[in-house]
Amino acid sequence: MMSIGFVVATFVGMASAWWDNGHMLTAEIARQTLSASDVQKVDDVLQSIWSRDFPNRSTFSPAATWADFLKCTSESPYCQGVPMAVNAMDAWHFSDSPYNPQNLSIPQSLETTWYQQPSSIWAVDQAITTFLSAQGAWGWSFMMLFSLHIIGDMHQPLHSVSGYWNNSQFGYLPNGDRGGNAIAISGVPGATNLHALWDSAGGLYTNNAPYTAQQTADLEANASALIRAHPQASLPEFNASEFDGCLSAKSFNPCFSVLEGWSNDTYAQAMGVAYGRVPSNFTPGGFLGDAYIHTVQQTSQRQLALGGYRLASFVSSIIKTAPTVPSAQSGGKGLSTKTAVLVVVMVAAAGTAVIYAAMYYKLRSAHHRYTLVRYRQHNDDGIQA
Question: What is the value of pTM for the model shown?
Answer without folding.
Answer: 0.81
